[in-house]
Amino acid sequence: QVQLIESGGELVQAGGSLRLSCAASGRTFSKFAMGWFRQAPGKERAFVAAISWTGGSTSYSDSVKGRFTISRDNAKNTVYLQMNSLKSEDTAVYYCAARTGIYEPPSSNPYEYAVWGQGTQVTVSS
Fold first, then answer.
1. 50-74 pLDDT, tens per residue?
2. Which residues pair with 95 in a beta bridge?
């Protein structure tokens, strides 16, 4: 079973950058597609980005495409989310998640992820 811990969230000014990290425990991390989601106050959890278990395939929501980059380092059991040109509407709690089974493709559907981290707060001031 994979366990996930996010870090890197903080208060940043609009136009700034942050890099979120998601550290995973468990020997099978490299076999799971991973995703980043976010939840703003009063809103549902929303897809941000996903990456295949090899790292060779990525996908993004339209709202972050061109500004955010998801990557992974399987040797370090870590997934990253590089966020550039941050906007106030990016303010949310950011969660990383692991797909339900090994070797499954990345997905934008949160119900297809079985393991979630505790979240890290990102606040963008305008």
1. 999 999 999 999 999 999 999 999 9
2. 37
